[in-house]
Amino acid sequence: MEGALPEFIAAQMKGIVGIEIEIETIDGKWKVSQNRPLADRQGLAEGLSAIDRTAAAEMAELVRRYSKQ
């Protein structure tokens, strides 16, 4: 919005509506490349393990764990 005319910003602001939604339940799916060939899953786990981040290492472990099933 930097550089936009004040009139343009004012017109856009009129179109913004805020809502609030109460979340009662959340359903999710567990997806760690189980549908991929074993070689793909192994490559993914190796690639994730090479990343210096805790979340990547945790994801790599999940891919390895669910690749055994």
UniProtKB/TrEMBL annotation:
SUPFAM superfamilies for the chain: FMN-binding split barrel
Tree of life domain: Bacteria
InterPro entries (alphabetical): Split_barrel_FMN-bd, TR_PAI2-type
Name of this protein: Transcriptional regulator
Species: Rhizobium tropici
